[in-house]
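Ex. 9. Protein: Diguanylate cyclase DosC.
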Amino acid sequence: MKNIQPLNYDIIKNEWQLLINNTNAATHQTLMSLSDEEVRQLVDAYYQYMLQDEKAKLFLSTTQVEERLSASMNNWLRKVLGSSCEDLSELIAHQRKVGEVHARIGLPIDLVARGARKLKYELFQLLLNKPQISAKEISDAIFFSGMAIDSAIEVMTIAFTPSHQKMMHDQEHFRLLTVYDDMNVERERQLGALKDWENQFIYNIATELPFEERVLLSDSEFGLWFAHKGQHIFRQPDLIKKIDSLIQKIDRIITTEFANESSDAFSRIHLLRMLRQDVEQVNMILSSIFEEIVKSENGKDPMTKLLTRRFIPTIMGREIGLSIRSGKPFTIALLDIDYFKKINDNYGHAVGDNTLKNIATWLHEYVRSSDYVFRYGGEEFMLLLVETTLSQAQVLTERLRNHIASQMIEVDVDTSFNVTISAGLVEFDNHPDYQRLINKADQMLYQAKNNGRNCIESYPFGMDNSL
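Predicted structure tokens for Diguanylate cyclase DosC:
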């Protein structure tokens, strides 16, 4: 994807430039001279149409349309219809950003395509009803506007696809993480199941159990787990294929070589050695994959054991959907350890690490089991407080701040120190883009730091800005 995407953007840019250059000035002028009232009618027709769709209503509200989205769509339409070679790079960059936002909020690509189709229909009808313009100019304007809108949507789609795929992968990984919360336990269980099958098979051969009663590796407890669950946990396709190939090879040895009831003891021992070598390979590969998951792919920060920010899109996307459907609020808080660099400088990184672990423990103690605690990065943490208003979150966070400030971090038997936190809070405002909400919380955290630290600042509920 790293090499393909820029190439696709270059193709679109080159073709869009060619479209602009091959379109006469009169056509450009026709589209750029659409009145504010005409553009407003197009935008109104677009949103009236989209708000009739139940799926679209999850991402739109009448208030959002009136207060912000209509103006944004008006601006977008003006820029696309008035696109020129001079501003094309900036225009394409904006479409990419829009596509990434669509991926973050989980906006289905078919809704985007449907909206574009409706917008073009209304625009074409508007142009066809302009008696003062010649049929040739109308035809040229329809052609240019349709191609320009399609090009913009194509850029959005290219940006949408990899972001959406990553989000879907992370959603699935988080789901599996909730099933297999302790990968160490799962590793021992599956390695044990593999060993049990091997021992049982060797015993069956030694006791000359009838062939039809022997269990293939693919039909064993381990084999079934690998086929239905294991392959979906692991993200190393080459190693997955290797294990699958080994399982098939082992089964093939069993069904062909061991099926010969008249084989002598020497032959059976030779086959068992071959089989054991293959099982040992499966064991080694499986162990290495689990080890990698335990180290870095289990979604937990190794130091604090908190969820990493990797799962913020998945979890916030889900909570946003729940909040929009139920009308119940949630609030997020970004917290930062004050003067953390000084702790590392004065006492060493081991003490700094211990401070992070203590903060993580205290955060868990003060939130409910239904809430989420993330290590956001460095000395920053994030809380997602479900079904919690801003005022309720302020009370909880203030109690948490006071508690942390009252605790002592021990350096040694003779030395200890206090630590404080700053926090920025924001309540969900029904905008489907989680990053916008995080940006508001970050803005409040920055304000808390500027106000002397060891304090909490909250984004006024209902206030909007360009974030």
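Check your answer against this statement. The chain has 17 helices and eight strands.
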